Amino acid sequence: MIYIQHKILYRICVWLGHFLPALIIDAISICINRSPRMWKLCKKVDKFSNATQPFRTNEWSFSTDNVQEMWSHLSSEDQKIFQFSMVRFNWKKYLFNHYMGIRLYLLNEDDSTLEISRIKYKRLYWRHQILKIVFAFAVF
To answer: What per-residue confidence (pLDDT) applies to 28?
Structure first.
């Protein structure tokens, strides 16, 4: 990952590194009678990147000291009613719901495409690994 501080330079790099290759690949796809998909994919990635930019570029530090202090002052009855202790918080379930929400509300993809997306992700992952190996051999 390359971090670029200036927004204009970042946008130029995105266009040269993402959108221009997508246009070229889509043009080739049209020439060989295949449906163009890269432009649409690049727009989705760019939309997601822009939506998550503040969380990717800033350093966040959270403290739960006040919540823990408040929790310790609650009676056992109130602790049963207001279950907000982070000790038993299910992070795996939270992150799963978080990613499913991103899929649904940011990427506009419903759950019916989940299995197909997983298959496509695995294919893309292995293509990327092979491409890195090819580049490594080309450089050395």
So the answer is: 94
pLDDT at position 4 is 75
CA distances from 10 to 14, 25, 95, 105 (A): 6, 22, 29, 25
What integer pLDDT is reported at residue 35 of this predicted model?
92
Query: Which residue, among 14, 11, 40, 4, has the nearest Cα to 25 in the 3D structure?
Result: 40
Nearest to 36 by CA among 44, 47, 28, 45: 28
Where in the chain are the domains? 1-55, 96-139
Burial zone of 22 (CB within 10 Å; 0-12 exposed, 13-18 middle, 19+ buried): buried
105 close to 111: Cβ distance less than 8 angstroms: no
Helix, strand, coil percent values for the chain (each to nearest 5): 75, 0, 25
Q: How much is the pTM? A: 0.50
CA distance 96 to 93: 5
Predicted confidence (pLDDT) per residue in 59-100, tens digit: 888 888 898 888 889 998 998 888 777 777 888 999 999 999
CB 79 within 8 A of CB 138: no
